[in-house]
């Protein structure tokens, strides 16, 4: 009898599905990706079904040819997730996805689980916006409750005088997706904790990551986050565990946090592998991608310890000349095979060092060779 390899179905065919496929192969796991776009970059490394997520017939056929389904994005239409879950195990479960798809439900959940958040208020009408401003104060950020990511669907208000402009920018989305006004937090640091929970409840985290965003998009990560009091690491892990258990979560997720006055505030939870965990591919004993595959297929989880301190540069819009990274023994190049386009994540590079001092000097010199000194500066300063 021939051996049957498990097949992991992935909804969404971007770079996260591509890196999941690459991590699945050594485990003997095949992937099958579904995406609406024929040029989805995961299709370059494994089989791709081109279908709309609203195409129930295509999704039923897809469900019939895989053992487990997972996602590379969180805004999976609820009907698609439910339709799949009726046919095949889906991890994370549709109810865990739903809890993180709406910023209002998500922040409410954080507070119920004992994780503070920026003050917030729902906004459905122009009058609600004035009320929300009086409750939350300014500066503040108006965000769409659903379907926003990477800083999209957001408007920053410096004072209440910006209310009309904010409504002009996002008011039309109020009816379709709902809006939320959040207090703007002048945070000291932005951190994320990457966590994984297995089908058997085994729970692990990678060390805290420090992140810097440009225009709402991740530009740079450092792991482990340098100079962080151990209490913050302990608190972050406790919050991640509480949320994972509350949602009966299976797979990898990222909890994005602000540090303000030495305390953690919850920003959002991404129910999937996450950009701020890309450093784990070379920097940890088991990457976020491999542990996600293991978790959703019910395999034992791997060690989340690190090989050394890491820095990850994101490439947005276009890629620099890769030569400086390709020539270095301690740096790793990732080209997602995507067409360059403004604001699009097209690749990343990770530097792994033996200690923080070495990382600082290697990040400096590699960034200079790439022409990315400005992007790397916060990491160089934080490691100094
Ligand atoms: P989000 O899509 O909500 O994660 O927002 C993208 C980025 O915008 C975050 O990573 C922060 O850098 C920034 N941001 C979002 N919400 C806030 C807030 N309430 N206060 C300060 N900065 C924020």
According to CATH, the homologous superfamily of the largest domain is ATP-grasp fold, B domain
Low-pLDDT sequence parts: none
- Return the string of H and E elements: EHEEHEHHHEHEEHEEEEEHEEHHEHEEHH
Structural class, from secondary structure content? alpha+beta
Helix content: 25-40%
Counting structural domains, the number is 3
Percent in strands: 25-35%
Q: What's the number of extended β-strand segments?
A: 17
Give the CATH topology of the largest domain.
D-amino Acid Aminotransferase, Chain A, domain 1
Oligomer: single chain
CATH architecture of the largest domain: 2-Layer Sandwich
Average residue pLDDT: 95
According to CATH, what is the class of the largest domain?
Answer: Alpha Beta
Radius of gyration: 21 Å
Alpha-carbon distance between the termini?
A: 59 Å
């Amino acid at each position: 009898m021939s051996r049957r390899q498990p097949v992991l179905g992935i909804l969404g065919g971007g770079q996260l599905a591509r890196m999941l496929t690459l991590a699945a192969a050594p485990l003997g796991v095949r992937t099958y990706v579904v995406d609406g776009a024929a040029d989805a970059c995961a299709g370059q490394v494994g089989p791709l079904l081109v279908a709309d997520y609203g195409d129930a017939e295509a999704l039923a056929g897809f469900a019939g040819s895989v053992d487990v389904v997972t996602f590379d994005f969180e805004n999976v239409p609820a009907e698609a997730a439910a339709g799949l879950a009726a046919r095949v195990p889906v991890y994370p479960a549709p109810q865990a996805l739903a809890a993180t798809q709406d910023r209002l439900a998500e922040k409410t959940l954080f507070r119920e689980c004992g994780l503070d958040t920026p003050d917030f208020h729902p906004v459905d009408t122009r009058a609600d916006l004035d009320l929300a401003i009086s409750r939350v104060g300014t500066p503040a950020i108006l965000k769409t409750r659903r379907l926003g990511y990477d800083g999209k669907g957001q408007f920053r208000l410096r004072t209440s005088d910006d209310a009309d402009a904010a409504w002009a920018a996002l008011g039309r989305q109020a009816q379709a997706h709902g809006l939320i006004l959040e207090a703007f937090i002048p945070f000291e640091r932005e951190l994320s904790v990457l966590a994984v929970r297995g089908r058997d409840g085994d729970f692990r985290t990678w060390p805290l990551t420090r992140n810097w965003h440009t225009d709402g998009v991740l530009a740079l990560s450092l792991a482990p986050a340098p100079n962080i009091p151990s209490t913050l690491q302990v608190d972050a892990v406790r919050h991640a565990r509480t949320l994972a258990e509350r949602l009966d979560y299976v797979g990898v997720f990222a909890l994005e946090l602000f540090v303000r006055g030495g305390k953690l505030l919850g920003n959002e939870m991404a129910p999937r592998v996450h950009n701020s965990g890309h450093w784990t591919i070379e920097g940890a004993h088991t990457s976020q991608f491999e542990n996600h595959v293991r978790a959703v297929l019910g395999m034992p989880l791997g060690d989340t310890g690190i090989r050394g301190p890491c820095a990850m540069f994101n490439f947005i819009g276009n890629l620099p000349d890769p030569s400086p990274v390709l020539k270095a023994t301690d740096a790793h190049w990732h080209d997602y095979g995507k067409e360059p386009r403004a604001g699009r994540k097209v690749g990343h590079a990770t530097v792994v060092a033996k200690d923080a001092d070495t990382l600082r000097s290697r990040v400096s010199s590699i960034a200079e060779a790439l022409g990315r000194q400005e992007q790397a500066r916060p990491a160089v300063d934080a490691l100094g």
